[in-house]
Task: inverse folding
């Protein structure tokens, strides 16, 4: 139940069913193919705005949906903490996870209260956390209390909120445009970097200075030679540990040369660059791999565990890092990290990347994260930038398949092509990307902080409104008690209407 606070003179607390009726009206969608289809994802959080939607036919809807009409509120009962409600102006069908509401008081007043933190807190408390995706049912919603102002004051509050919140929304929209431009700018920097347009190429500089330079093809030959040496070193150590030291060099024939990429359909590269596969760029002693399938519970003092959500713009965010039992991590020894490895997400959001910091040496990774032990002879940051670039992410996303969640096969990463510049050019590109990115990230952080402040201001305005502090009270207004009594009388006198379609469940 809502926490009941003191209200201004003439106001009154009442339960939710006294001010709104849930208009359950499930119908067969096959009879409404051209009508709009509204689901919880089509309602923006916190703002009461409707996002882009499609028709019943376009969404291929087959299960029963609620029929709604203009003037009703559509309230998402699933995950109520997401705070989704909108006043609708047309006829259509909505998800069974949405309650169509008939408001018996000013609908914009009720909508504003539903979008307030006080209402959300009350609903979340009533719904509890009985499931991973909690819902609020009709009985729980009935426990929530609503502060009702006199009818004329409701209208004054709605008008004041419209004035305040419209200006606030304009400020939010301006910041969101800046945010979009900053993201586009960062993407353009990455695009220029991987296309060899961000800094002068090593070939250009060498010509200008009248000197030679090492092209990437020569670097790749050295990488492959070192890769084989590292493999032989690791294989020899393995055989000796097993008590089977080699008697001759025949064991060396087991080495498999990494597969080079098929360059016939790849774009031309800047002068001095060459193509390599991810497999060619591994360090030889370890292979590309994914990690722990079932990590178990979070364990204080356990092994640091890197998940997809921890990969943020090329870095590992350690603020919400999980820790798992050593016995679990030891079942996946290939993905223990030493620092410097490139990580790439393989499930869900494809292509999120990060470089493992040296401070996380000894950590392990999730099954949804590919661990790429890149050669020390190429810049691991350059390789990470290559995979973070929009074109590479789009290519990998296109190769992913979807069952329950979008998934990228490790083999697709292993054979993926990477453009390699000369080593000194890699370092210049990395330095320039990091410099430009740091400036953009600082600006993005400032935008995010301002958006958070505006979100808090929105809730402060709503709080003032429902404490009676946003507009003046008029002693001549009809008290809310009389308004509610009239609503009860009108509802009691109204003829019972038969609900069309199937009867809706209460949860």
Result:
């Amino acid at each position: 139940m809502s926490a009941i606070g003191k209200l201004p003179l003439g106001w009154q607390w009442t339960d939710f069913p006294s001010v709104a009726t849930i208009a359950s009206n499930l119908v067969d969608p096959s009879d409404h193919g051209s009508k709009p289809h509204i689901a919880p994802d089509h309602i923006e959080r916190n703002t009461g705005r409707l996002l882009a939607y499609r028709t019943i036919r376009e969404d291929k809807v087959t299960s029963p949906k609620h029929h709604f009409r203009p003037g009703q509120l559509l309230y998402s009962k699933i995950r109520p903490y997401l705070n989704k409600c909108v006043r609708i102006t047309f006829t259509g069908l909505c998800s069974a996870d949405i309650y169509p509401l008939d408001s018996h008081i000013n609908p914009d007043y009720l909508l504003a209260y539903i979008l307030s933190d006080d209402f959300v807190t009350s609903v979340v408390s009533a719904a509890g956390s009985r499931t991973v995706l909690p819902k609020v049912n009709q009985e729980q919603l009935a426990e929530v209390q609503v502060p009702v102002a006199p009818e004329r004051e409701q209208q004054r509050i709605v008008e004041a909120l419209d004035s305040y919140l419209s200006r606030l929304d304009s400020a939010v929209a301006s910041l969101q445009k800046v945010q979009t431009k900053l993201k586009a700018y960062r993407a353009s920097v990455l695009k220029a970097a991987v296309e060899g347009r961000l800094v002068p190429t090593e070939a250009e500089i060498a010509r200008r200075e009248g000197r030679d330079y090492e092209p990437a093809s020569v670097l790749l030959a050295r990488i492959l030679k070192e890769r084989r040496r590292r493999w032989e070193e690791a294989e020899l150590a393995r055989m000796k540990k097993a008590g089977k030291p080699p008697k001759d060099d025949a064991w060396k024939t087991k080495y498999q040369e990494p597969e080079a990429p098929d360059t016939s359909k790849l774009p031309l590269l800047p002068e001095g660059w060459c193509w390599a596969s991810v497999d060619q760029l591994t360090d030889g002693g370890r292979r590309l791999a994914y990690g722990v399938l079932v990590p178990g519970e979070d364990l204080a003092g356990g092994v640091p565990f890197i998940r997809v959500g921890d990969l943020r713009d090329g870095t590992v965010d350690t603020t919400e890092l999980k820790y798992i039992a050593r016995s679990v991590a030891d079942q996946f020894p290939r993905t223990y990290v030493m620092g410097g490895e490139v990580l790439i997400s393989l499930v869900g959001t494809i292509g999120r990347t990060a470089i493992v910091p040296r401070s996380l040496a000894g950590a392990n990774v999730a099954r949804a994260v590919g661990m790429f032990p890149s050669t020390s002879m190429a810049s691991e940051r350059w390789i990470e930038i290559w995979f973070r670039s929009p074109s590479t992410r789009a290519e990998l996303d296109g190769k992913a398949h979807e069952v329950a969640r979008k998934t990228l096969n490790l083999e697709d990463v292993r054979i993926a092509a990477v453009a390699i510049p000369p080593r000194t050019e890699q370092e210049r590109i990395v330095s320039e990307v990091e410099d430009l990115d740091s400036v953009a990230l600082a600006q993005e952080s400032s935008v995010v902080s301002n958006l958070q402040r505006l979100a808090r201001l929105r809730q402060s305005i709503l709080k003032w409104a429902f404490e009676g502090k946003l507009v003046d009270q008029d002693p001549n207004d009809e008290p809310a008690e009389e308004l509610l009594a009239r609503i009860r009388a009108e509802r009691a006198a109204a003829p019972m209407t038969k609900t069309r379609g199937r009867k809706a469940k209460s949860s």
